[in-house]
Specification:
222 residues, 7-stranded mixed β-sheet, 9 strands, 27% helix, globular, Prot/Nucl_acid_deglycase, lyase, peptidase activity, DJ-1/PfpI, glyoxalase III activity
Length: 222
């Protein structure tokens, strides 16, 4: 399938005022990237600042052997301001706690998502859904308004010990935008597709989310 997909990762490497390191979640990069490459998509990567993104050290034990060029690929991360959304048929917002700080309120990110959503597929996994907060549809309303989605849940934040340091509840913020936020048991595989908007709840959902994204790009019905 000769199509182009853009993966967007965080540039933020500190977990709030805790001083603890965070960043993108490695499984949420590698598992989808493998699925997309197997589907013969051309995949590029971008972040708010560009350059090699921070990786959450808690995810560093994920096996990356299926993506042997990962280091080189990440070194080529573009800055969002330099991305031409017209070149991409789909976008995937990768998670990791860093997104909670540099995805919301980012006009470049919101513009890319809006442009892709108007004609292609928008996907987000775990905390990547923080990038949907400012995204709008062609009607000017929040992209998630009236849609059924999922994201990293309040219960999962509590179990991860991050609920006291994150700047807001992702589950609740999305619900405030008139989204139906459907969450499953903590850390179980859970993906929701609502038209051209596809979301996965947590890292374990990464591969399934990517497969659903490929189906949507191929025009496979829900």
């Amino acid at each position: 399938m000769n199509r182009h997909l853009l993966m967007i990762v965080t540039s933020h490497g500190t977990l709030g005022k805790s001083g603890l390191p965070t960043g993108a979640w490695l499984e949420e990069i590698c598992a989808p990237l493998q699925v997309f490459r197997d589907a013969e998509l051309t995949v590029t990567v971008a972040s708010p600042l560009g350059g090699r993104p921070p990786i959450d050290p808690n995810s560093a034990d994920f096996e990356t052997g299926a993506v042997p060029d990962l280091d080189t690929w990440l070194e080529g991360t573009q800055a969002l301001a330099k991305v031409d959304p017209g070149r991409h048929d789909a976008v995937l917002l990768v998670g990791g706690h860093g997104t909670m700080w540099d995805f919301p309120g980012n006009p470049d990110l919101a513009a890319i998502i809006a442009a892709v959503a108007a004609r292609g597929v928008v996907a987000a996994v775990c905390h990547g859904s923080a990038g949907l907060i400012d995204a709008t549809g062609i009607d000017g309303k929040p992209l998630v308004s009236g849609r059924t989605i999922t994201a990293f849940s309040d219960a999962e934040e509590n179990m991860a010990g991050a609920d006291a340091v994150i700047p807001f509840s992702l589950q609740q913020r999305l619900a405030e935008l008139d989204a139906t936020v459907e969450v499953a048991e903590p850390f179980s595989v859970h993906v929701r597709r609502d038209g051209n908007l596809i979301t996965g709840q947590n890292p374990a959902s990464s591969a399934a989310l990517a497969a659903a994204t490929v189906d949507a790009m191929r025009g496979v019905p829900e």
